Q: What sequence folds into this?
């Protein structure tokens, strides 16, 4: 049986091995890593999927504090979701969905910060309401595909139309 537990309970070296298997060893050059450079992971929102019987790590989801800085220099805090990773042998068995569902249950319901991620719109749009609508005027600290820059607000509050995403440095 698969359980969802805090990622902080997992040996960081096991998480690195999982991320290498899901994304390749050259993953550190990705724009997503620059986006949250220097930030500490949000431990309360970072989760692991483990096989309870075999005590094996199957998947992980991490969250980071980032912000969108608008043209007036005002920072709008957001939560970056990712990487989301499931070991290739265990993909398409519902583990990704279980981790994201558990994360969404942890988000403040009355005043949620927007969730931002770089990912497949077919997956994250279909199951979790992420959309690239509204992110077209945002810039990132590296190359990105506009259709994969996704946001989920959870409120009716409008997002800034333009701005630069980066680490949340107060
Ligand atoms: C993307 C990922 C996290 C999804 O987790 P998962 O456990 O494999 O997927 P789930 O079992 O929860 O979801 C299964 C459903 O999603 C669909 N799906 C899975 N990955 C998909 C993708 N990348 N794009 C579109 N649909 C996808 C499956 O077809 C399936 O749909 P169905 O139920 O209609 O057959 C996982 O496949 C993975 O780690 N991939 C490699 C790393 C990656 O690309 N991460 C995302 C960017 S941060």
A:
């Amino acid at each position: 049986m698969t359980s969802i537990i805090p990622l902080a309970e997992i040996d960081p070296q096991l998480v690195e091995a999982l991320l290498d298997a899901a994304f390749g060893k050259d993953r550190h050059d990705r724009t997503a890593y620059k986006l949250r450079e220097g930030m500490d992971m949000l431990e309360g929102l970072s989760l692991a999927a483990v096989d309870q019987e075999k005590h094996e790590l199957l998947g992980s989801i991490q969250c980071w504090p980032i912000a969108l800085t608008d043209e007036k220099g005002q920072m709008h805090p957001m939560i970056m979701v990712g990487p989301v990773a499931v070991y290739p042998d265990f993909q398409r068995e519902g583990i990704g969905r279980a981790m994201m569902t558990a994360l969404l249950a942890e988000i403040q319901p009355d005043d949620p910060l927007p969730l931002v991620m770089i990912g497949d719109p077919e997956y994250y749009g279909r199951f979790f309401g992420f959309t690239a609508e509204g992110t077209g005027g945002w810039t990132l600290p590296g190359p990105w595909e506009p259709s994969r820059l996704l946001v989920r607000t959870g409120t009716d509050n409008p997002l800034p139309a333009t701005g630069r995403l980066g680490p949340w440095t107060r």
In short: Residues 22-23, 82-86, 91-97, 119-120, 122-123 surround coenzyme A (CB under 6 Å). The first strand starts at residue 2 and ends at 6. Helices lie at 12-23, 31-35, 95-106, 121-128. Residues 12-23 form the longest helix (12 residues).
